[in-house]
Structures are given as structure tokens and as C-alpha cells.
Amino acid sequence: xxxxxxxxxxxxxxxxxxxxxxxxxxxxxxxxxxxxxxxxxxxxxxxxxxxxxxxxxxxxxxxxxxxxxxxxxxxxxxxxxxxxxxxxxxxxxxxxxxxxxxxxxxxxxxxxxxxxxxxxxxxxxxxxxxxxxxxxxxxxxxxxxxxxxxxxxxxxxxxxxxxxxxxxxxxxxxxxxxxxxxxxxxxxxxxxxxxxxxxxxxxxxxxxxxxxxxxxxxxxxxxxxxxxxxxxxxxxx
DNA sequence: CTGCCCCCCTGTCCGC
DNA sequence: TGCGGACAGGGGGGCA
Length: 237
Description:
Elements: E1 9-15, E2 18-23, E3 27-32, E4 38-43, E5 52-57, E6 63-68, E7 75-80, H1 88-91, H2 102-110, H3 116-121, H4 131-140, H5 154-173, E8 216-220, E9 223-227
Antiparallel strand pairs: 1-2, 2-3, 3-7, 4-6, 5-6, 8-9
The structure holds a DNA duplex.
């Protein structure tokens, strides 16, 4: 990793699942946390934890910011000048999941002939949704994860769009989802609380809070997928 | 275009 | 107590 000494951070932004730390002089760090990545503020004096790949030192704070990622599925790009606008991983970022308009979402989804869950996970289609929040959104909207996108009615698409927005908003308020292995921690090293509100994700064999039916787990496009067979029935054919 | 399979990597958990 | 296998919040690539 190159060194960018004595640069002031001018802004911190987000593009889908990418974190953008912009520095003076058209420098930018583009960070993706992958599955196990964390950004942790730690005391200057403490040794960086195992699997720390980048440390940002601050002149005026008592902490340093450590990027930690045991599985190394994440990455960091350091770009200069026009590099940011040409960065391949950013060019592929679709419209943000929290900013979807009814008109556009309808048009986008109906134009595809794909199962809805993998479509929601496709970051070039919609940016920001991962496995947990896709399942939660589909349950909230009462849509089966294998439902084909072009067969969804407009009313269902509106339910889904709002379910996505609500799910993400609630998850953010709750500080994110820290599952059993506590891989997710916020920048202060604290656990999230949204795992306590999950309605389907990770609840195989437990009862649906809405109808009481047993939550099932299936594999959809090689991702674990949780849903309620009664609330989210498969499409009749 | 879409789905399916494999890969990347480390840590944890479960059954034997 | 050890050991092998399955699995995990993501994403990319090859192939049918």
C-alpha cells in the first residue's frame, strides 16, 4: 500500500457497498469490506489486531483507524486524479437501494427475466443490498425469493421497494446486524442490534412471527436463502 | 441474457 | 482432545 502522509480528509462518502475516503489533492481511498471487513478506531498505543491491512494515523486524535479483514474478500484501491471516475468497481455500482423511485424500479425490474433475489443482490442492478437484507425485504413484501422479476405486479413491486427502504432504514437505526460470530462491529467496536429484529434470516426451523409457519432455508444462486412458505408462496403455474 | 459452478480466504462449529 | 468437513454478511469468472 502506498503512503499518503499529511493529507487532510476532505470527505467520507458511500457508493453502494463502497466506502470513499477523499483526501486533499484528488486522492481517494476506495474500500470494500467484503464479508468480514471492519473499520475500527483503536487507541494509538494498542497494537493493530491480526489481519489489519491498513492503518490511518491522525495528527489530532488519540485513535488510529484500522482496516481489518480476516478473509480478505474486501479490497482497497488508492486512486489519484481522474482515477476515481474510471475505477471499474465504481462504474458498476447501480442506483442506491435507498433512493429507488417507483417509476424507475418498476421499469428496471420488469425489464429483467431473473429470479428476484439474485436480482436484488446484483450490485450493478441495485447497490447496497446484501444477503440478509434481501431476505428480510422479500419477506416483508411477501414475495418468494425465486419469483421471476417480470411476473411481479406493480403493487408487489411497490411493496418490495418500500420494504427495501424500511428494512435498510431500521437496520441502520439498529446499528447493523451482528450475527453469531460477531464479525460485524461498528467503528467503535460495538455490536449491532438488528439481528434481534430479523424475521427470516438465520431462523430456519423457527416460527414465522407473522403467520406461525416454519421458516425454511433453501439455496438460491448459491446463497443461503430464508423465507416463510406461507407468507411468501411460490408462484402458481 | 441467465443460472450454475467454482474460486478467493480465515475462523468457527459440529459430528465422529 | 483431535480432525475433517460444512458453512459464513461478497463478488468475479467460466461455461452451458
